[in-house]
Amino acid sequence: MAQILINAVTLGSLYLLFALGMSVAWGTIGILNFAHGSFFMFAALSAHFIVQKVALPMPIMVLLGMVVGAVLSVLTQMLVFDPIQRRSTDHHRAELQILVGGIGISSILLAIAQHVTRSVPFGFSNSTFHIEVYELGPLQVSNIQFVILSVAVGMSALTAWWLRSARAGLALRAIGVDSEVATLMGVDRRRLAFGTMAVSGGLAGMAGILLTYYLGSIAAETGDSFLIKAFAAIILGGIGSVTGVITGAMVLALAETIVLTQMSGMWASAVAFGLIFVVLLLRPRGLFGRKEVRRT
C-alpha cells in the first residue's frame, strides 16, 4: 500500500505541475487554454531533438522545456487569445472563440509532432541524467521521483505565496474577481495576462520534461491525455484555487493508481470523468471553489 501511495503522489505531482498554471490562467484572466497539453508535449519534443545533438544534464533540460513552453504560450496569447479578447464585445462569445482558438493551436502542434516523430514515442536517451532506484526497506523510490516531488512542493508553495502576498499576484486575483474594477484601479490586465500565460506555459514545459524522464518516453498524443486529467483535477479542486488543484491532482492520481493496480487501465479515464460528474453534482464550484471568484 505504501508503494502505491508513493507512486500516486508522484503521478499527482506531475498532474499538479501541469494543471497549476492552467488553473491560475482560467481562474484569473479567464482563459481556458486547450493548447496547454500541446505546449507540454512540444517542450519535451524540442528537448528531445536538442539532446540528440548535445548531451545535457537534467536541470538544463528542465530550463529548456520551460523556455519552450513559455514562448509557445506567450505567442498564442499574442496572436490568438489577446486579439479575441480585445475585439469581442460579448464575454461568452469570446470564451467560445478562445476555446476554438486553443483547439486549433493544439491541432497544429500535434500534427507537426506526429509528422516529425511519425507517431513514435520519444525520450531523452542522450541526457547525462540517469535514473537510479533506491531501496527503502520494502519500498522502491527513484531519484527522478524525489526531483518531481520536490519541484511540485516548491512550485506550489511559490505560486500560493505569490498570489497571496506579491503585489502582482494580488492584482491578478483582483482581475479574477472583477476585471473592470481592477482596471479602473490601475491594474494592467494585458501585461498580467501575458505574464500569467508565460508562467503557465513554463510550468507545462517543466511537467513535460519531468514526465518524459519519469516514464522514459512519451508520445505526441500524451499532452491531450494529460489535458483531460488536468481538467478533472481543476474541476475537482475549484477553478483558480492552488489548494484546490493540489487536492484535485492528488485525489485523481490516487484513484487512478488504485484502479490501475486493482482493475484495468481502461477504467482510468472513466474514473477521471466519474469524479468530475460527482463533484459537479454535489459541489458545482469544486472542493475549494470560492463564490467571490468569477471569470472576466
From TrEMBL:
UniProt keyword Cell membrane present: yes
GO cellular component, one term: plasma membrane
Location in the cell: Cell membrane
Origin: domain of life: Bacteria
Gene Ontology molecular function terms on file: transmembrane transporter activity
TM region positions: 12-34, 54-75, 96-116, 144-163, 193-215, 227-253, 265-282
UniProt keyword Hydrolase present: no
Record's bilayer topology term: Multi-pass membrane protein
Pfam families linked: BPD_transp_2
Keyword annotations from UniProtKB, A to Z: Amino-acid transport, Cell membrane, Membrane, Transmembrane, Transmembrane helix, Transport
GO biological process assignments: amino acid transport
Family: Belongs to the binding-protein-dependent transport system permease family. LivHM subfamily.
Designated name of the protein: Branched-chain amino acid transport system permease protein
Organism field: Haloactinomyces albus
